[in-house]
């Protein structure tokens, strides 16, 4: 069809996290601040699911209004074995620096931004930051050795909601997704969490 580009995803890399801290002023304004991004782990797949619903309201015996609602977005991450210090961070447990042990303390989970690159067959990689979410999961399986290859990995669910910050571009947002097609300056995209207001065109 004329004017339509046929594109497909093929590949994923550069899975990053950055801790999000929030402070509330006396007037109730919420300020969000992101820490320095760090690698989460090797990534096998990132799959996202959007939670939206619509409800039709009827008046005078006809369908008159469609009411839309938007919930959380859910991402399923399949990753290589996460190091214990990072596991403690995203799972909200305790890491002992002296011994290198992960300790299953009562969980106190934090919010994180999640970043990754989705590769496309046309060569224009898609750069992504998801702004406010928490991790669940981290289950693992240990199998006996056998005469084949039966290695296992880990799976997490990352649940994302809208930012408390209202940006000039987009207001309260969930994510930023931009193609590496020469329009945007992506030089420092993963050295910090790039917000919609941070992103600049190549000039």
Written description of the protein model:
There is one protein chain. By secondary structure, this protein is mainly β. It has one domain (28-179). The chain is built from 1 helix and 13 strands; from the N terminus they run E-E-E-E-E-H-E-E-E-E-E-E-E-E. It has one helix at 84-91; strands at residues 9-24, 30-34, 38-39, 43-59, 62-79, 94-96, 101-103, 111-120, 126-139, 154-160, 166-167, 171-172, 175-179.
In angstroms, what separates the terminal alpha carbons? 32 Å
Return residue spans where pLDDT drops below 50 for at least 5 consecutive residues.
none
Helix content: under 10%
User: Measured on Cα atoms, how large is the radius of gyration?
Assistant: 20 Å
Helix count?
A: 1
Shape: globular
Class per helix and strand makeup? mainly beta
- N-to-C SSE series? EEEEEHEEEEEEEE
Mean pLDDT: 91
Major sheet details:
9 strands, antiparallel
Total number of strands = 13
Number of domains: 1
The portion of residues forming beta strands comes to over 45%
